[in-house]
Amino acid sequence: MSAATETHGHAGHGHDAHHDEGFIKKYLWSTDHKMIGFQYLFTGILMAVIGGFTVYAFRMQQAFPGTHIPGFGRVTATDYNALVTTHGSVMVFWVAMPVLIAALGNYLIPLMIGCDDMVFPRLNRLSYQIFLLSSVVLVASFFVEGGAFGGAWTSYPPLSAKAEYSLTGTGSSLWLTAVALEFAAFLMGGINFVTTVMNSRAPGMRMFDVPMVVWMIVIASILFMASVGPLVAGAIMLLFDQQLGTGFFDPAKGGDPILWQHLFWFFGHPEVYVVLLPAMGIVAEIITVFSRKKLFGYKTVLYTAIGTGVLSFFVWAHHQFVAGIDPRMANVFSVTTLLISIPVAEMIFVYIGTLYGGSVKLNTPMLWALSFIAEFLLGGVTGIFLGASGADVYFHDTYFVVAHFHYTFFPIAFIGAFAAITYWFPKMFGREMNDTWGKVHFWGTIIPFNGIFIPLFLLGARGDHRRIYDYRHFPDLMKAGMQDLRVFATVCLLVLLAFQVVFLVNLFYSLVRGKKASANPWNANTLEWAAPSPPPHGNFPEGLPNCYRGPYEYSHPDRAEDFWPQHVKGA
Amino acid sequence: MINKYVPSASTFAPDIDNLILLILAIVGFWFLLAEFVFFGLILKFKEEPGRKAQYVSGEKPEEKKWVSIPHYATLVFDVIIVVMAVKVWHTVKIEMPDAEKENVANVRIIAQQWAWTFVHPGLDGKLDTEDDIATVDELHVQEGQTYVFELTSRDVLHSFSVPVFRLKQDAIPGRIVKGWFKPTMTGQYDIQCTEICGIGHGIMPARILIESPEKHEAWMKATPPTRSAPIDFIATEQPLEDGKVGALNPATPDAALARNGLNNNGEDTP
Amino acid sequence: MMRPIATTRSATGIPTGKLAVWWLIASEIVIFGGVLGGYIMHRLGHPDWAHQAIHTNTWAGAFNTFVLLTSSLAAVLAHQAAEHGDGKKAAKMLYLTVVGGLVFLVVKSFEWSHEIHAGYTITSNTFWSFYYTAAGIHGIHVIVGMIIMLFIAADAAKGKELQRVENVGLYWHFVDIVWIFLFPLLYIAK
User: Fold this and answer.
1) Nearest-CA distance from A154 to chain C in Å?
2) What DSSP designation does B249 have?
């Protein structure tokens, strides 16, 4: 392998060959990690629109049951279940994961570790194509006979296993296939990320010099790879039950429905940390830059992230306290679940500590990063009510759970994504997003967000249970004030959805007409800011950088400037 | 506090409510403190021209303690909460009433798409006897009486939930899951299905009627006994003789939907 | 396509391709772990499955175990040849490995057609559901491995990408080891 000639060949002359790339080669058939990152990003944004539409329809049904919903029509009981299922599945698998892990991981990792691409660019391209196929399969399931699968994103058999129960025979199998394809895409992506970070770091970049977001995406990828296996097995078994008539989960044939639950949640719980860790990584990058401070305890954050990941394998059955598992097992899982709150809380404390003594600039990315902490705190503490088995008996399957996981998931998937996009937009597209409209979007999202979910805590505590298309059948749930709360939450949702238009307009307008951005508009340290905005194919036209220090050397007392980029040789 | 809105109608409901209150007090305090510190720091350290930020690594002991102390405090409070939670869980799910020591009545609950069948033991107090009363969507119990329930499903997973009891238990086809409750006040309240079970999941509400001893006895005397519904549906399905559509008939989901005014697309029929 | 410079680095000292194969194997272990874990839990709860398991062909299973082990030996010899730069010999050994895989699949197809003919289908009993599913997933991994191996052998014969011989060998050993677990669980436990 003539490494030396290849170095010059690629950075110096290589990209000449790409100047007359056709549209297809450049945008649709690219192996460039940045383009693949964009493919994931824009697919994720499109799927988010679908996810948003589904919640619009079913919340309108809840608030105004039995009426004609504008843009949808009458929401039948069948529709309601399909909408709820689609909402959950899309938001977790087709929005949070592609945007936080695949888009940002692909875009940032080679840049932040100072190399020119992932180590397996063609595998990278294939992983996106399989992901795209999975989205197509999912959307196709809306149009088949019987309609989309309506058994919730958790897909418990026997409901999901037999068409006579679900009444969506084809839809169920298409949904399952879409999920399985998505898993395959992320397994492939994960191998790429982990191997690239392990081996292709810039010369001089030691373990503790790696930016936190890169670490977090790597740990998340490892977590995903270690946890999804049993569910892949389970998905094959469920598919065979659905299509071949096997009885893996059918008690009449010697199977066990609870086996699916264990396989699902063994993955399902680590999965929430798979999406949480990248979001926390994004927050770390932003709060250090805009408080001009080192991360308060880099090693603490890293070790607690790894600890959380490991612990996350031991808590899964807190989703199954009342499912019919041995009640003594519930005690074990209650203990482990409350224990896992400790490392996560510690990470949040460290982030709060990072602000101390800082010089805090409240621009749009920072507002998002800070609001992540404020909102996620509420999600975290409300989890305690659910992890405590004795209390979960009451709260399980109520809207209290829904509010809890939206106070964790919304910060992860949306606040994290908005923070990342507004922060890295200049690098990605060489232009600036409008900061004033960014702040309008921020407040127009955060305030209604709380307006949606605080009422849901109250409604859940008063007995509203999940996946119910019309509460009018339950006299105790139509007591004074309850329907008002449902309407209020729905109106707040409408406001929140309306403000997303501001974001989309700002995004697309700035893409073509935004003010041109410099290489390092935020005066940040990490290596991506050493590349041009946007970086060309090969990333660093002047040669791949070396790394001389950690990523958060802000406000160093011996330096006049309050930042010290990683690639700049020591004074 | 929850009982301000949802009555507390079983012996263990107050225990659960107290646990929830304890958790609320502890996490509420920490949550407010953390947010207060968080917002305070943002305000205190907003950028000012001329002031450079401090260079703090967070690795020195005097810095670390600001994170370690809350960390250990979290641990202590988690332990307190978990001990209380396990105690409550024990009462609700692990300790079963002892039929030798107290008067225990049994009731059988069979969930299906999309209705509930309740089998009451009748005046003789025993299930699977001639005077059993099977009802659909209405559970009659007596205040002050301890009940052990046998729960199962005919088809998919369902979940038997009585919010005023603070009780919930998933129903699994092919298995009988046992639990218990003891009502402490009379009244009529919702029973919910709390595990998604198909398009009719939202239209299988049931009601629990907690009756005084006199009223309960009067109801049993006034209600004709129906042949007891056996627990093992896979082997023996015995339809209700009066032909009423509902559980126990080999009813199709369509029929159950029709009973609730829906067609098989889950649409309300006019 | 020009390889990125990224592929020429190795901060861990382990070649990138090998690292990737190890990660692939790690995630596959969890997949097979899920299938086999599910099977074991069911089997423990269903002692009556022994009546079904009697009808598996232990001799065929044992012969297949021997075949796979031998093919893994061929893969080791291929690696050795590649280490010495002998691409042609490495390719020959890889072709032998593929032949081993082929024999395995042929034996399996005889086994299965006999069992299906006798009425032991994937739906006749949940034991057989696990049997066909677990061995089927394994079989797919064998086929995929063979196909990839053919491509790598073709390159190796021209002296190209010799480092991939070891990597595909690693994958093949993994497939072999999965079978070593499957064999007692499906054939010997009677």
Assistant:
1) 17
2) S
Q: Domain boundary residue among B94, B118, B151?
A: B94
Written as six digits, the tokens of A438 are 């960014």
- Lowest mean per-residue pLDDT among A15-24, A41-50, A311-320, C69-78: A15-24
Contact A199 C24 (CB under 8 A): no
Closest-CA distance of chain A to residue C57, Å: 22
Q: Which residue has the higher pLDDT, A209 or C51?
A: A209
DSSP for B59-97?
A: -SHHHHHHHHHHHHHHHHHHHHHHHHHHHHHIIIIIPPP
Per the CB < 8 Å rule, is C7 touching A240?
no
pTM above 0.90, yes or no: yes
| Both tokens assigned to A192 | 């790429």
- Name residue, tokens 């490995």: C97
Percent of chain C with pLDDT over 90: 83
Polymer length of chain A: 571
Q: Does domain C17-188 have CATH number 1.20.120.80?
A: yes
In this complex, is the C-beta atom of C5 within 8 Å of any C-beta atom belonging to chain A?
Answer: yes
Please give the Cα distance from C90 to C118 (Å, whole number): 42
- Domain containing residue B70: 2-94
Cβ contact, residue pair A294, B58, below 8 Å: yes
Question: What is the Cα A100 distance to its own chain's centre?
Answer: 5
Does some domain include residue B192? yes
Q: Which of B40, B68, B94 is the last residue of a domain?
A: B94
Query: Which pLDDT tens digit goes with each residue over A299-323?
Result: 999 999 999 999 999 999 999 999 9
Q: Which of B38, B59, B200 sits opposite A77 (nearest CB)?
A: B200
Q: Does residue A141 belong to the interface with chain B, where contact is any CB pair within 8 Å?
A: no
Contact C26 A225 (CB under 8 A): yes
CATH class of A36-530: mainly alpha
Residue B34 to residue A293, Cβ atoms within 8 A: no
What is the ipTM for the molecules in this complex?
0.93
Query: C29 contacts in A (CB within 8 Å)?
Result: 229
> What integer pLDDT is reported at residue C71 of this predicted model?
97
Those of residues 43-72 in A touching chain C at CB distance below 8 A are none
Q: What is the CATH number of the domain that holds B172?
A: 2.60.40.420
Contact yes or no for A389 and B55 at CB 8 A: no
Cβ contacts of A342 on chain B, cutoff 8 Å:
71, 74-75, 78
- Mutation target vs B (from A160, A397, A398, A472; most B CBs, 10 A cutoff): A397
Residue A135 to residue A346: CA distance in whole angstroms: 36
Express each pLDDT in A242-275 by its tens digit. Answer: 999 999 999 988 899 999 999 999 999 999 999 9
DSSP calls for A314-329: G-GGGG-TTTTS-HHH
Give the best residue of B46, B168, B188, B268 to mutate against chain A (max A CB count within 10 A). Answer: B168
A233 interfacial to chain C (CB closer than 8 Å): yes
The tokens for A560 are: 């006049």
Q: Are residues B47 and B114 in the same domain?
A: no
Same domain? For B109 and B167 the reply is yes
| Strand arrangement, sheet containing B146-153 | B133-136, B115-120, B104-112, B146-153, B177-181
- The span from the first CA to the last CA of chain B, in angstroms, equals 41
What pLDDT, on a 0 to 100 scale, did the predictor assign at position A174? 98
Same-domain status, B127 and B239: yes
